[in-house]
Amino acid sequence: MKAAWFEKFGSANEALIVGDLPKPEAGPGEVLVRLHTTGVNPSDVKKRAGAFPTLLDGGLVIPHSDGAGVIEAVGEGVDQTRIGERVFVYQAQYGRRLGSAADYVAIDSIRAPALPDECSFDVGACIGIPIMTAHRCVYADGEVVGKTILVTGGAGRVGYYAIQWAKLGGATVIATASNAADKELCLQLGADAVVNHREENWGESVVAANAGDRVDRVVEVEFGANLPEIMKCIAIGGTIATYSSTVVGEPTLPFRDMMFMDLTVRMVIVYAMPESAKQAAVEDTVAALREGKLAHRIAHVLPLADIARSHELIEQGGFGGCVVVQITQSDD
């Protein structure tokens, strides 16, 4: 099969190889998926760059956890009727070496849920990390109806979906954005108000936008850098659900202030979510896709031959939307 892989850590151009590898077989409880697309996420490029030094100890790694395609075969214990089913895959390269940047992936059947016919394979490659992370951040601490949720970086890959999940759940949403175009996008997605996180004391602007009240929950893209401003606008008993802290990798916490506000900080990563949370995210996502309730933004679509470029785009940033690599051309 055609695949991309790396045998050493390094830059995308230096480390990534595109060539032929043996086609996998579906083992017990697994399905063999003929992939049409694979999604590229920050965790994928960090792994390739060497963030996990022991990753290559077992041999070469086919990167990427997300993707979408069609089940071609099933292993022992999996219903034969799943053959021919359109699916998305997630966690393809978590706790294992062979991910979704290939013609085929053999993966636990539960990690390959049905992809609605209304949904393209390109969108299917964006579900695993962007959509499921957003779902967990919004709903991890219970229903959101009647709550006010702040989504920082609302135009980003996760923030984009977090706004939509929060609105679907009945919350009031305030988002942050740094320019007029991103502000307009957040409003189109359903945000009730948008403040500029490049401006000084933007946390106070959040309170002003919320009629003088503090927010109940925060979906946070830059925990360490934004925490001082979050402290100005989060309510007593509030929750910060954060999935990234890139600018300040090891934040210092104002412990006493946070303690006296009875705050909860929830760290979110799809891989470590409870199985019940994963299944809830999958079920809600499939239902929303079938009903056309989620908007999507795919910024770049590249062929497998240009996988190095897809990694470079994620590293460079400066754009919103998902990056998808097409492995097999399709009509959808």
UniProtKB/TrEMBL annotation:
UniProt keyword annotation of Transcription present: no
GO molecular function: oxidoreductase activity
Database matches in InterPro entries: ADH-like_C, ADH-like_N, ER, GroES-like_sf, NAD(P)-bd_dom_sf, Zinc-ADH_QOR/CCCR
Domain Enoyl reductase (ER): 11-325
CDD domains: zeta_crystallin
Keyword set includes Cell membrane: no
Matching Pfam families: ADH_N, ADH_zinc_N
Keywords, in A-Z order: NADP
Descriptive protein name: Zinc-binding dehydrogenase
Protein's organism: OM182 bacterium BACL3 MAG-120507-bin80
